[in-house]
């Protein structure tokens, strides 16, 4: 059987080193159980080095150029990879961003659905029936609160969160997995339906999700996993469990 190849577009910060590894890992892992689907990956980058409001706003404005560039490929679905940039623009902004970027692609004659990591996190938590969550984040205090409030405004209670106060986005990509596992010891998780190991697509978590699920004995996920799951839904597939032990404990 010749597999159908889907082109996956990614709109990523210029300093992001994680999204272009974790999204392929999730999607290629999912495809290994099938013979009919494969993926290629294509990125357009927005300048951003520090996770601060001014750089996030400038970067988000540049996402329009990225959508136009990706429509030249063309691609089948695009993922906007910066969760905090979307959430920092105001509650509910992921809907406006997805519509605006999709409209740009359509105007270029190559329409494709757009998934924001911010919207995907909230949508997949709701889809799985997880209404109370705990979060791990790399951000400074002010942005971490914005993220927690954004998730809560989408109808998902945040019972606790921990943030590492890292503002250099290159350093966010170097946070080791054992730091995330250790942070779970100080995170309130008893009342959570699910723990989001990385409420950020730059803070790596793919390699420790299964270990975190075993440690906590409950569902664990990440923004990257939720983005990959929503991308599959936009392509018409049921994501199931992308990697054993993640969304189900």
UniProtKB/TrEMBL annotation:
* Class of this enzyme: isomerase
| Organism lineage | Bacteria, Pseudomonadati, Pseudomonadota, Alphaproteobacteria, Geminicoccales
Q: Which UniProt keywords apply?
A: Isomerase
Protein name per Swiss-Prot or TrEMBL: Maleate isomerase
Q: Which residues form the active site?
A: 82 (nucleophile), 200 (proton donor)
- Enzyme Commission number, as recorded: 5.2.1.1
Q: Organism's domain of life?
A: Bacteria
Q: What does this protein do?
A: Catalyzes cis-trans isomerization of the C2-C3 double bond in maleate to yield fumarate.
Q: What else is known?
A: Reaction is initiated by nucleophilic attack of cysteine at the double bond, yielding a covalent succinylcysteine-like intermediate.
MF terms from GO for this chain are: isomerase activity
The UniProt entry, under Gene3D superfamilies, shows: 3.40.50.12500
Q: Which reaction does it catalyse?
A: maleate = fumarate
Assembly state and interactors? Homodimer.
Give the UniProt family note: Belongs to the maleate isomerase family.
Q: Which InterPro entries does the entry mention?
A: Iso_Racemase_Enz_sf, MaiA/AMDase, Maleate_isomerase
């Amino acid at each position: 059987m010749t597999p159908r190849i889907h082109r996956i577009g990614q709109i990523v910060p210029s300093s992001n080193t994680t999204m272009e590894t974790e999204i392929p890992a999730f999607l290629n892992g999912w495809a290994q159980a099938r013979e009919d689907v494969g993926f290629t990956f294509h990125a357009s980058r927005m300048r951003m080095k520090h996770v601060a409001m001014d750089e996030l706003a400038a970067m988000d404005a540049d996402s329009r150029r990225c959508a136009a560039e990706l429509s030249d490929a063309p691609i089948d679905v695009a993922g906007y990879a910066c969760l905090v940039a979307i959430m920092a623009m105001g509650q509910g902004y992921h809907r406006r961003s997805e519509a605006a970027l999709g409209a740009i692609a359509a105007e270029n004659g190559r329409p494709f659905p757009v998934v924001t990591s911010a919207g995907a996190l909230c949508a997949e938590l709701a889809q799985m029936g997880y209404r109370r969550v705990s979060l791990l984040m790399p951000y400074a205090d002010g942005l971490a609160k914005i993220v927690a409030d954004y998730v809560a405004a989408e109808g998902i209670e945040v019972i606790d969160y921990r943030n590492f106060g890292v503002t250099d986005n290159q350093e966010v990509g170097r946070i080791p997995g054992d730091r995330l596992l250790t942070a779970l010891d100080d995170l309130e998780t008893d009342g959570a339906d699910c723990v989001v190991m990385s409420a950020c697509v730059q803070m790596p978590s793919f390699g420790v999700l299964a270990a975190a699920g075993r440690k906590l004995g409950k569902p664990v996920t990440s923004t990257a996993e939720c983005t990959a799951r929503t991308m599959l839904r936009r392509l018409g597939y049921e994501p199931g469990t992308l990697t054993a032990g993640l969304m189900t404990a």
